[in-house]
Amino acid sequence: MRAGRCNADVRLLPVTKTHGPWAVEYSYKYGLPAVGENRVQEAVEKRALCGGLAIRWELIGTLQSNKARLAVAHFSRIQSVDRVKLVGVLQRQCEEQGREKLPVLLQVNAGNDPAKHGADPADADALLEAALSAPRLEVQGLMTIAPLDADPGATRRTFATLHEIRNRLESAFSVRLPELSMGMSGDMETAIEEGSTLVRVGSALFGERA
Ligand SMILES: *Cc1c(COP(=O)(O)O)cnc(C)c1O
To answer: Which one has a higher pLDDT value, 62 or 2?
Structure first.
């Protein structure tokens, strides 16, 4: 309650990348509905090793167009939709695979990270417009990653900016974008204070990555 928010508003996405199937099984055992992975190939292999475990898989890493077919086949939701071209590729893959709905988040580079993870904030409107015109894509909200090594003020500004972009897009397009996926092991408290609905946590749960 420190941020004046009730626990039910914020959910946890355990990030199992670089960890074996045990991390997915652990998440399942504790009742978590989904896990996050940042590489398509790694997730597909891990998923096979997990048998038919009833857990959802979410893609949180950059998606190359040539991996879109696999991504649509294996992921419940894609959080890393960052360019108009990818919207078209995903729409086409949904049609080819007979997938009626693909929930997505639009990834925005709200902290102007020079590493350029996500769409430039100035391109967010065009990206949302494209995604809303793709009938098989269901835009549920936005995602961001704070710049690595940012000072605490810059991290907070990144999250506040994503929140503002979300509010602005909701009014401009008359749509609801309820999901704000922001915050990782090192900055989740700040993200929650700035309105995160989903924190993506890896190392704080499963230990440092190999
Ligand atoms: C790895 C990763 C995380 C989790 O990072 P931790 O610092 O281990 O909690 C969250 N989001 C994305 C996009 C990631 O790639």
So the answer is: 62
Encode pLDDT of 118-173 as tens digits.
999 999 999 999 999 999 999 999 999 999 888 999 999 999 999 999 999 999 99
Beta-strand relationship, 137-143 and 102-107: parallel
Buried-exposed string 25-40: b where 16+ CB fall within 10 A, e elsewhere: bbbbeeebebbbbbbb
Q: List phi, psi (to 5°) of 107.
A: -90, 125
Give the residue, out of 16, 38, 143, with the most ligand 1 atoms within 8 A of its beta carbon, to mutate for a pocket test.
38
pTM: 0.96
The two tokens of residue 42 are 């790694």
Q: Kindly state if the Cβ of 185 falls inside 6 Å of ligand 1.
A: yes
Answer whether 23's CB lies under 8 Å from 30's CB: no
Nearest CA among 168, 173, 81 for reference residue 132: 173
